[in-house]
Amino acid sequence: MHIHPNAPAVVRTFAPDEPVILNRPHAAARAARFFVEKFPGKTLYAVKANPSPDLLKVLWGEGVTHFDVASIAEVRLVRATLPEATLCFMHPVKTARAIREAYFDHGVRTFSLDTHEELAKIVEATDHAADLRLCVRIRVSSEYAELSLASKFGCDLAEAGDLLQASRQVADWLGLCFHVGSQAMSPFAYVQALDRVRAAIADASVVIDMVDVGGGFPSVYPGMEPPPLEDYFAIINRHFDALPIAYNAELWCEPGRALCAEYNSLIVKVEKRRGNELYINDGAYGALYDAAHVGWRFPVRCLNADRGGDEATFTFYGPTCDDADFMEGPFTLPADIAAGDFVEIGMLGAYGAAMRTAFNGFGQGEAVEVSDEPMASLYDGSRQRPARDNVVSLR
Ligand SMILES: *Cc1c(COP(=O)(O)O)cnc(C)c1O
User: Fold this and answer.
1) Does domain 25-260 have CATH number 3.20.20.10?
2) Which of 12, 134, 250, 349 is the most exposed place for a label (fewest CB within 10 A)?
3) pTM over 0.90
4) Domain boundaries in the chain?
5) What is the pLDDT of residues 131-149, one digit of tens each?
6) Other CB atoms closer than 10 Å to residue 235's CB: what's the count?
7) Is 212 in the pocket of ligand 1 (CB under 6 A)?
8) What distance in Å separates the CA atoms of residue 260 and residue 256, rounded to the nearest whole number?
9) Domain 3-22+262-370, CATH class in plain words
10) Model confidence over 88-97: pLDDT tens digits?
């Protein structure tokens, strides 16, 4: 694949009428190296954040060997892309058929669960396999995260002891997992979750082989500047070490966003301007789902060299005929931006490129590789610890 230097060069070459996804494999590789080298345990990639096979291969190439998959389609995709990868089926509600295919056809041994019903289903569907690696998901608070994952999955602390004991009976290897919510803005999110893990283990008094602190590791966006990831790793390590578990118990994490946010940006074209509203050719049904539905702000820059001077703030409309195809921003761009101009929207590697649909006939567009830096990075050495160093009181 031809590698372009940056977004302006892509615009000069193609003057693209459709949105263009820009891939930055060097940025994803750097994120993977960071986790592989610095996280004090094993790093799984949560595939749902961005299932691009090219990205999966980049992560594998940097030493990410385990993948958190949530559907049988993700199991098949990762298995076809990376035949040697270890797949962990971490959705706590699966069909019996999916469990069976994962176990017998794709070598999956690790499954998560949060109910006795799911435990029975896994045991049945695998014909009472003796080599199951089970992971009980417990519910934890999402209070430090920008996107909550607290209400849907995870058993309550009151039920955890019982479920851990029942799982221990049939599991060759037993873990505990949780998810603090996505874009956790303070490492303290993991402290409260690991406190719950401690309580669950004390209650169950069973041998625990693994603790999986899930995803939630942040990336950097306008208005969301997290503390350095090293602070998260240090706090997690300290609280993991203090748990009443076997000395050889493993520590896992399952980042999605933090591994892939910097992998993609997007070039869009301004089709129309109405006051400070820009009608662009991607939106809520494309890569800008979070910008529309949870008001996420992504970094933007105008790619037309002749624009400059004063700036103004804009909102975006996407291309479909739906009023909900609206991104409030605000997005800061040159005040004289006009129809026909191109804009790069950054940090769309996580839950951006993966969210595109064909609704209303939109959602086409090429992907090309570029070699420049992402519009922001947690891994380029530019990040300073915030002035107030007390990570616990950041929020
Ligand atoms: C979505 C998800 C992840 C990844 O979460 P991020 O916030 O993107 O890091 C990890 N584990 C599970 C079980 C998930 O559902």
Assistant:
1) yes
2) 12
3) yes
4) 3-22+262-370, 25-260
5) 999 999 999 988 888 888 7
6) 20
7) no
8) 7
9) mainly beta
10) 999 999 999 9
